[in-house]
Model the fold of this input.
Amino acid sequence: MSNKKIIQLKNPPIKEAVFAVFYSLEDDFDINNFDSFINKVNTEFTKKEEISSFETKFEGGNPTPMTRHEKNGYLLLNEDKTKAIQLRKNGFMYSITQQSYISWDEFKKDAWGYFNDIIELYNINEVSKLSLRYINSINLPTKIPDIKEYILIAPDIPEELNYGINRMFLQMVLPNTNNESVGIVTQNFNIGRELNETFSYIIDIDVSIAKNRNIKDIDGIKSDFDKLRDFKNEIFFKSITDKTIELFKK
Done:
């Protein structure tokens, strides 16, 4: 196993970071009650969009479908859309783009502050799942002999099929028995027909712990998020070469 050192990058390739907590509110919870939270954060999150679902089905041989519209929650955005909060009956999500990302400590502090407001305002007894997702976009030179100069978990192509790859989608599920977490790693790129000097190689890392935990176990929940962050970092740094790391030190 590689012992590659995990370091603080000066310019990390984070396209988006997502912090999510899943729980269950009462079945009869009216999502209009989220207004108390929305009013609390509306100086920063000035835009509000409704999250809805539509269900269409045919009943009793009636050729005209029955359509049901359900309002599931709200999406809150700041003015430049670099930060977002999703409020649903089954969970809370805070996301931030590269332009606003400073560090894990700052990201966790903000996310936890908003979620703590949720805990104080609504009747949440336990959480069922914790999740962190980091979408990384790495600009690589288009004309490279071997992509493994930069990416260690790229697929091996037999020499007989060595025509080059213009498009790729690869997904792996990595169970971590050390802390009951699971990592889903998705890689993709699309060079396209017009060959530019560089292309974007996406490494999307989604790590989660799914287990019921009493909401009063705040220290345990925070500790699990730190474990998820460590697992995410392990996956990222062991998926790239030192040559790639140098790109983010500049």
About this structure: Residues 52 and 72 are 5 Å apart (CA to CA).
